[in-house]
Amino acid sequence: MENIIVVNNLNLYYRSNHALKDISIKIKKNNVTALIGPSGCGKSTFLRTLNRMNDLVEGVKINGEVLYNNKDVYKDIDVYELRKKIGMVFQKPNPFVMSIYENVAYGPKIHGITKKSQLD
After folding, report:
1. For residue 22, what are the CA distances in angstroms to 2, 18, 41?
2. Mind listing the pLDDT tens digit of every residue in the chain (120 residues)?
């Protein structure tokens, strides 16, 4: 079966805090993969590396390789196109800093729907 996400030697730092250390994993297409561990062990931090949500966090430094469909998500893929393909839902709501309407309309907008009547 084809690997859709491949992570090699991923390291993530919050300034001097080395939060993710040498993570390597292959995630196969059409399979269920579970990340299990105690609170604070880096599960959400790791997931945010897959669609570059850590780009929005000040002081984050990432090295290693994250491939999606054999393309490096930090070099070869437009971040907006990547986020159309790799999304995530967390237990607690984590909206963008904008109105509720704009948060709900964000998905259709990035897929080209701009007409207000359609968004409404």
Report:
1. 23, 10, 14
2. 688 999 999 999 999 999 999 999 999 998 989 999 999 999 999 999 999 999 888 999 999 999 999 999 999 999 989 988 888 776 666 666 778 888 888 888 888 999 999 999
